[in-house]
Amino acid sequence: MLNMAIKAARAAGAIINRAALDVESVRVSTKQVNDFVTEVDQNSEKAIIETLLTAYPDHGILAEESGNEYGNPHSNHIWIIDPLDGTTNFIHGFPVYCVSIALAVNGRIEQAVVYDPTRNDLFTATRGRGAFLNERRIRVSKRTQLRDTLITTGFPFRPGDNFKQYMAMLGDVMQRTSGVRRPGAAALDLAYVAAGFSDGFFETGLSIWDVAAGSLLVTEAGGLVGNFTGEADFLEQREVLAGTPRIYGQLVPILAKYSKFASAGDKAAVRQALNEEAPEEAADNAAEQDADKAE
Questions:
Q1: Domain assignment of residue 67, yes or no
Q2: 235: domain range?
Q3: Which pLDDT does position 286 carry in this prediction?
Q4: Strand partners, 9
């Protein structure tokens, strides 16, 4: 099954690479503000589904663009597919995007493939058998101090996202680490934690196809993954935190108060802190406007 997922991912990657040669001609449509889908997403997804259902016609499919339209939705084997994670990067020619394929058996992720077609990097994992990059065993990094870490994240981009709270959360993390990056493809971010290229990752608003494959890569590489409060049942909770065991343990106390599952007291404290900052921002903005007028 892993080999078939690899075959499907490489077929999708070939479609993506061909389109990347002339990205200006790719047709783009908007699902919602700042959330794009291209004909490449759709063609990539079609290639993956055809490959998997030809091999396993009784399996189910849960895909970003077509949902559970194809396959057997009642199967205990469900393929979870993101045909092009990082679409916004792709349509700008920014070479950070990937294909993500996971297999859930009775609700548990058992196989995972994340394929970066720009670098021909193939991340794979099978439950209980470890994680690999191009057939070489990978492990999470050995860093144990948060101040030494490189952390990745994803910025909120949809209308209605709580930008102010996210900036507060980002500020809390940034001042405790050696750096924070925002590459723009969550599945690849998780793969990079598994490979030890970064030491942790956090983001809100993600769907199951963004995190299913990457989460198995992290755990099979010796890391931990869950929601912001450290609970392991996170796949459909739209918040994810991953990292080396020691770093994960240090990030949970920082991020837990921003979780949708935080206690009422923590949520109230965050709201109060954000409200207290608002008058200061207004004063700063007014001062800037006065300075502009003076000029």
A1: yes
A2: 146-258
A3: 45
A4: none
